[in-house]
């Protein structure tokens, strides 16, 4: 991109009232990379966060850049929030991606690689090993690696091979003895995904990690006998993984087949990025560029001293030898509303009170306990739930299977369109279906993202409905890493709402209204805008007002402009948005009263909380929905109102703690960039990811947001 074009594009971007979704996402990944640079973190934590940025960027190219190519390849029009059309926006986006990639590489080479040995491990190539270690690796290659490798030549007789998404590949340029250069051939050697990323050599005082590509590079001549190897080029491709699913009348057959077909397409989607080691064959790269129809700005160069694919660093981070060198989080504490967690019958407890869970500070056990007891309890008649993502060895699936075997009615909506979990969800759903559960595979062209559980229990001739509503998945693994909200209740108003919503999901029903539930795609956007406009009206009339919202992403333009109008009316607006934010805070005449904060740290902020002051008659909701077009128009979502005084105060306190944090917080500036929020002079550090382990009831009851 030349300077004149860059200045022109930047001017258009800066004049827009909205921030580009994709450019905002890149700023989020910058904040994750920043975690890898913090001096207070161990090198293992730094490697972990670097690996997360790499995984994030892979998904970004597969989905967001893949989506952009869907417009470019089929000549469809799209104007980004930045004001740029498809091609100029791609140029700007690729420039930003290249710069981010460069910062990743520089950080690894300058700050991480030189400091590994002091922590008990090093990265090395084969040549730097002792002779006996080299012999050991040679034996490993011949026995375990060599049989797995398949050189695939591309020439006039053989078709161009399908190279897999995100795998390391050697492109080997060869020439037969005596042949001219124009007769050279290109072969591909793909490194299978089931080979460990590093070969580990255990020494007394250090673990030596040899990248698998170095093991293969050292021995690759054994795959190309009696020909001249002109160049060996290591690269990795990312393919378009963005696809949409069409509606299907026959949900049980056609729909699942459509999902499976699209999953196969993801494996062969158009190439959107090439990462490649420097010193590559220009002849090979020109051939690949022509073959895959990509430009230079989609080619990301990696220094030979660095490494391709930082996601492989998880192998180092996960080594049990270094477990003691990785800081451990405190054990979960009992919920404020359930201090005797685990000591009483959960069914009896919920008949008397509601429980608000705040993960990972409170563990997920009360939910698992409820489902597992329900599976075996002879008084439980039915279990209904929605499932978006499950843990690998899910206790929930086992409990539901047991419930079905015990003759209970079990209805489960498995969202088979949950991105990158499609195959696992199809497999688990079929398992339940075979056991006699009523399984729904999704609702036509909508994703079911809402998190709901309903248990129907008859006791002493009285039927009680036990309900769980949450912001996070029913996943034991992520519940230890993600901050989420969950409400356990027998409240009849919410139970009626949830029962009605399940009738929508499993049958053909369109309830006229819900009392304490706001749902999408029908009401959510309009209801939230109505709440925002009420705050604006209160401010104009001189009444107290305030909007406090915590979500993962804010992208919906109708909501954004409603917040702008509230700001112009004098409403103080505090937004805690972890990732994408397309709203510009602090713009004169538009959003002076809006502050946007982002918290990125040890836990992934995933909870959604909406609080409106409403002139003292507070409205507080939590649930599964972000403020995005897809959440309002393309997903089944729900937000539930929390009215119990202690539980509502607890949600307000979560917002208050987030606003007080000065360790993990970044403040968004008008231009879409972010700056860290440091403790003020004389102010103590307040780390929200530690403080929630020590919350007191008396402090919660005192909380004030306005």
From TrEMBL:
The gene is ppk1. An intermediate of this reaction is the autophosphorylated ppk in which a phosphate is covalently linked to a histidine residue through a N-P bond. GO terms for molecular function: polyphosphate kinase activity. Residues 19-121 form the Polyphosphate kinase N-terminal domain. Belongs to the polyphosphate kinase 1 (PPK1) family. Its cofactor is Mg(2+). It holds the Pfam family PP_kinase_C. The keyword Transferase applies. The lineage of its organism: Bacteria, Pseudomonadati, Bacteroidota, Cytophagia, Cytophagales. Keywords: ATP-binding, Kinase, Magnesium, Metal-binding, Nucleotide-binding, Phosphoprotein, Transferase. Residues 345-509, 517-685 form the Polyphosphate kinase C-terminal domain. CDD domains: PLDc_PaPPK1_C2_like (cd09168). Mg(2+) binds at residues 389, 419. NCBIfam families: poly_P_kin, PRK05443.1-1, PRK05443.2-2. Its EC number is 2.7.4.1. It catalyses: [phosphate](n) + ATP = [phosphate](n+1) + ADP. This is Polyphosphate kinase. Catalyzes the reversible transfer of the terminal phosphate of ATP to form a long-chain polyphosphate (polyP). The active site is at 449 (phosphohistidine intermediate). Residues 132-315 form the Polyphosphate kinase middle domain. ATP binds at residues 56, 482, 578, 606. The keyword Isomerase does not apply.
């Amino acid at each position: 991109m030349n300077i004149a074009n860059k200045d022109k594009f930047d001017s258009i971007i800066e004049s827009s009232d909205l921030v580009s979704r994709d450019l905002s996402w890149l700023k989020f990944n910058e904040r994750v990379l920043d975690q890898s640079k913090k001096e207070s973190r161990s090198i293992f934590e730094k490697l972990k966060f670097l690996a997360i940025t790499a995984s994030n960027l892979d998904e970004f190219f597969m989905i967001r850049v893949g989506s952009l190519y869907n417009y470019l390849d089929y000549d469809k029009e799209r104007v980004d929030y930045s004001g740029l059309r498809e091609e100029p926006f791609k140029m700007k986006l690729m420039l930003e991606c290249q710069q981010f990639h460069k910062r990743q590489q520089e950080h690894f080479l300058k700050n991480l690689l030189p400091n590994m040995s002091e922590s008990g491990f090093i990265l090395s190539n084969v040549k730097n090993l002792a002779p006996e270690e080299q012999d050991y690796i040679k034996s490993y290659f011949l026995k375990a690696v060599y049989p797995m490798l398949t050189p695939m030549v591309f020439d006039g007789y053989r078709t161009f091979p399908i190279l897999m998404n995100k795998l390391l590949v050697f492109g080997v340029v060869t020439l037969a003895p005596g042949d001219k250069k124009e007769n050279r051939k290109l072969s591909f050697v793909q490194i299978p995904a089931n080979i460990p990323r590093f070969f580990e050599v255990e020494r007394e005082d250090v673990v030596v990690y040899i990248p698998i590509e170095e093991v293969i590079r050292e021995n690759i001549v054994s795959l190309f006998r009696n020909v001249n190897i002109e160049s060996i080029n290591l690269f990795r491709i990312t393919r378009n993984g963005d696809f949409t699913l069409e509606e299907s009348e026959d949900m049980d057959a056609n729909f699942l087949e459509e999902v499976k077909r699209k999953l196969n397409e993801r494996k062969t989607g158009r190439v959107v990025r090439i990462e490649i080691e420097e010193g590559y064959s220009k002849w090979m790269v020109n051939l690949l560029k022509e073959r895959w129809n990509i430009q230079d700005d989609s080619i990301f160069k990696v220094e030979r001293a660095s490494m391709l694919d930082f996601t492989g660093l998880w192998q180092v981070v996960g080594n049990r030898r270094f477990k003691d060198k990785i800081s451990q989080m405190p054990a979960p504490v009992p919920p404020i509303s359930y201090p005797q967690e685990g000591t009483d019958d959960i069914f009896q407890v919920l008949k008397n009170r509601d429980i608000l869970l705040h993960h990972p500070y409170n563990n997920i056990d009360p939910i698992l306990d409820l489902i597992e007891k329900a599976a075996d309890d002879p008084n439980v008649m039915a279990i209904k739930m929605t499932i978006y993502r499950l843990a690998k060895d899910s206790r929930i699936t086992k409990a539901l299977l047991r419930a079905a075997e015990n003759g209970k009615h079990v209805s489960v909506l498995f969202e088979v369109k949950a991105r990158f979990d499609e195959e696992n969800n199809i497999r688990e759903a079929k398992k339940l279906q075979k056991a006699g559960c009523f399984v729904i595979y999704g609702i036509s062209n909508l994703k079911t993202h809402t998190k709901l559980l309903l248990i129907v229990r008859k006791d002493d001739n009285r039927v009680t409905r036990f309900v769980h509503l949450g912001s996070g998945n029913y996943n034991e693994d992520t519940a230890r890493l993600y901050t989420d909200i969950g409400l356990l209740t027998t409240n009849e108003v919410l139970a009626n709402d949830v029962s009605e919503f399940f009738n929508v999901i499993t049958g053909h029903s369109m309830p006229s209204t819900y009392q304490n539930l706001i749902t999408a795609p029908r009401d959510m956007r309009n209801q939230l805008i109505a709440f925002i406009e009420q705050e604006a009206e209160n401010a104009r009339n001189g009444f107290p007002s305030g909007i406090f919202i915590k979500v993962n992403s804010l992208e919906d333009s109708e909501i954004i402009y409603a917040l702008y109008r509230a700001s112009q009316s004098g409403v103080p607006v505090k937004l805690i948005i972890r990732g994408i934010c397309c709203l510009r805070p602090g713009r004169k005449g538009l959003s002076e009263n809006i502050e946007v904060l982002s918290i990125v740290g040890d836990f992934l902020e995933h909870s959604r909380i909406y609080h409106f002051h409403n002139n003292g008659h507070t409205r507080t909701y939590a649930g599964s929905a972000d403020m995005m077009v897809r959440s309002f128009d393309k997903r089944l979502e729900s937000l539930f109102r929390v009215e119990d005084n202690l539980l509502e105060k607890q949600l307000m306190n979560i917002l208050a703690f987030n606003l007080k944090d000065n360790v993990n917080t970044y403040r968004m500036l008008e231009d879409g960039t972010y700056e860290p929020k440091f403790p003020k002079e004389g102010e103590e550090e307040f780390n929200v990811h530690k403080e929630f382990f020590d919350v007191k009831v008396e402090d919660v009851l005192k909380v004030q947001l306005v």
